[in-house]
Amino acid sequence: MTLDTIPRIALAALPTPLDEAPRLAAELGLSRLLVKRDDLTGLALGGNKARKLEYLMAEAIGQDADVVLTVGGPQSNHARMTAAAARKCGMEAIIFLGGLPEVRRMSGNLLLDTLFDADVRYSATARVPQLHKLMESEADLLRAEGRRPYCIPVGGSTPLGALGYVAAARELAAQLGTADRDCVIFVAVGSAGTIAGLQLGVKLFLPQAHVIGISVSRKAKPLKKEAARVASGSSELISAGVSFSPEDFAILDEHMGERYGIPCREGNDAILLAARTEGLVLDPVYTGKAMSGLISMARSGALDRNRTVVFFHTGGDPALFAFEDEFAGAARFRIV
Ligand SMILES: Cc1ncc(COP(=O)(O)O)c(C=O)c1O
């Protein structure tokens, strides 16, 4: 199989735009900053999961699934987009979220889950491996009832799902001019499927580029290991003949703040700077923290100022609306 023969369905509006961000570039002393707008993939308000779901849902359809199961964090973008993709394919969705609902305020992604009528199961204590176990047990029950479940691990970060980002790297390569091809690409890292696919895609289609992942959840060491596993698996699926080790990945883990899902000062400042220089919307869980990594490296002189920087905007904007209190102090208004 090749990247173009593996079954894929159309869920995303592609290619996503590659926008100039000249005011933010000037603020950071960079000669050129481009934003790859995967927040505009279209499916259920957009985000990176649409690309992964194009391959995963094709497999679900191939298996004649009638219900899709997945897991995620308390404001999971992945779960929201999976629920939407399931509906678009005529299936139901059951999602297992780590965290308890704020029943008073089903805000952000939780509101969207409600619109898609996803069957949401919350667990305050479960971590990802336990959420996976809950999902698998539910799938067994469904099979016993004659249903046809399709399970998607956290973030859709399987070798098959990551192919979405191999294709994204090829798409980016086609959009970049010759002078920009030795760019530095920044991307948020959660379950590591996005960076895994990107790294493989860059190796195949944009070999001069350098990818830097900014972790929003775990330490760099386990993430690099996971990324190498997924990227090698993706390579195998498309017979690319490349294998990866953890050292092939550059992932920084000092920009996540206290922990996953908790906004931090650096990330919130990055959100305000991007909004106020470019009218660009980032979120406190993923892209704000990723942008804070880019900002910190640019300001400390760790980036070659003459090299084009590409910020991969992976979406996540709905989560911003679950954190409005974070920005209460930044509001400027008067009553007239
Ligand atoms: C908005 C956003 N950005 C980035 C990521 C990270 O992608 P991955 O989990 O593939 O590392 C996610 C994943 O949940 C996400 O929702």
Detailed description of the structure:
The protein is α/β, with parallel strands linked by helices and 336 residues long. The protein has 2 domains: 18-47 and 158-330, Rossmann fold (3-Layer(aba) Sandwich), CATH 3.40.50; 49-156, 3-Layer(aba) Sandwich (Rossmann fold), CATH 3.40.50. Helix content is 40%, strand content 15%. It has 11 helices and 10 strands. A 6-stranded mixed sheet has the order 1-2-10-7-8-9, with helices on both faces. Strand 8 (210-215), helix 8 (220-237) and strand 9 (250-252) form a beta-alpha-beta unit. Helix 1 (22-28) packs across helix 9 and helix 2 (49-62) crosses helix 3 (77-88). The longest helix is centred in the C-terminal third of the chain and has 18 residues, at 220-237. The chain is globular and about 60 Å long. The termini are far apart. It binds pyridoxal-5'-phosphate (PLP). Residues 47-48, 77-78, 155, 157, 188-195, 286-287, 314-316 line the site of pyridoxal-5'-phosphate.
